[in-house]
Amino acid sequence: MNYKEAIEFIHSTYKFGSKLGLSNITKLTELLGNPQDSYKIIHIAGTNGKGSTSNMIHDVLMAAGYKTGLFISPYLEEFTERIQINKIQIDKEALARTTSLVKEKIKIMIEEGYNHPTEFEVVTAIGFKYFQEQNIDFLVLEVGLGGRFDATNVVANTFISVITSISYDHMEYLGDTLEKIAFEKAGIIKANSNVVIYPQDDNVVNTIIDIAKTRNSNYYLTDKNNIEKINGNLTGQWFKYLKNDVFDLPEVKINFLGEHQLYNALTALRTLEIVKLSGYNITEKSILTGFESVKFAGRFEILHENPVIVIDGGHNIDGIEAFSKAVKEYFKDNKVILFFGMLKDKNPDDVLNYLVPLCKEIYTLTPNNPRAMKASDLAELIRNNYDINVTSLDNYKDILRIVKGADESEYIAFVGSLYMIGEVRILLKKEYLFN
């Protein structure tokens, strides 16, 4: 099996849908020798902020000298982004080899009467096995959907669980209240372990604490008062970490923009305190180095200045609200030229109240996903409810004409589904609009 065949096999399993439950992934990992038991796992669940928090923790562990795996989803430009070690993506030969091994084990499963694993279960198994072969120290493991029945929750022992911001998303699977959603996310908490909780509403935090207590796990809260923003510009934010009983940090810089990213950093620091107190060599220097080096494409990412071009994968109500706050902070009173595309099941009409007031005009796009809302339908929705100029684009290449024709003083934003953001990022890179 070569790389192309591996990718075709992985994506062909999309037809098996998305099934919540652990029986299939448990059998598959058993056949692989339970590779997920070979390293310490920091498991991260939540509605928003998983990727940013995961990358911050990963880069600090790497800066501290630990061989650290990172498992994320989805990818923006190339599949190999999903499985990384020390910022190096899995090479194509290794992906092909590991996929071939997983495919052999799936054949055995089918013969024994099990259902065929879903695409995410297959990718999870590939990642676990590759990380074992590479003899990593830590794995920063991002949940795919929910937590309790997510394929990544096949891990029996977790060093630290992290629950990031909880909001309304995937309600058909996770429930129609924040407490129900928090319950599903908190399903990753293991007995006699540790859990760190992002600063959020008491009803959410208390739901997570209750589950931690039933599992005799230590829970660690985060306090927004422990972080003080110093300043920020389009290159990043500087802050002071006021909790100094474990780390005594000078001014810290992160490359992420938006108030929510300060709280993601706060959550990452609380997690790293536990790592430090558990006997690992996490120093102030490794934190400063890791935080300043970490980047996460597609999260209020500034691609270009003059004109300013930003892309953001805000794809639910909280993500869009965070984007809106960041635009108001960094772009001041400047209205944006917005390119917008979302999936139908993300309720695009719910987020327009946040977006439209920021815009001088809007272009709609169709994300490359079967669940996408067509650009023409999205444009019609906007026209019927708002007094703003909106144009639907059938071809992504039309973006280039519009962007290249913009005045240098303009602010241009691409917002919505990551399936759209990834394609846009590739397109703009290809045209040398940014490095």
Structure description:
- The protein is an alpha/beta fold and 435 residues long.
- The chain has two domains: 3-293, UDP-N-acetylmuramoyl-L-alanine:D-glutamate ligase; 301-430, Mur ligase, C-terminal domain (Protein-Tyrosine Phosphatase, Chain A).
- It has 15 helices and 17 strands.
- The protein has helices at 3-12, 23-31, 50-63, 92-111, 119-133, 171-174, 178-185, 202-214, 259-277, 284-293, 317-330, 348-355, 375-385, 398-404, 418-430; strands at 40-45, 68-71, 83-85, 88-89, 138-142, 160-163, 194-197, 218-221, 227-233, 236-241, 252-254, 301-304, 308-312, 336-341, 359-364, 390-392, 411-416.
- The strands form three sheets. Strands 4-3-2-5-1-6-7-8 form an eight-stranded mixed beta sheet, with helices on both faces. A six-stranded mixed beta sheet has the order 12-13-17-14-15-16, with helices on both faces.
- Helix 2 packs across helix 4 (92-111), helix 7 runs parallel beside helix 8 (202-214) and helix 11 runs parallel beside helix 12.
- The longest helix is centred in the N-terminal third of the chain and has 20 residues, at 92-111.
- It is globular.
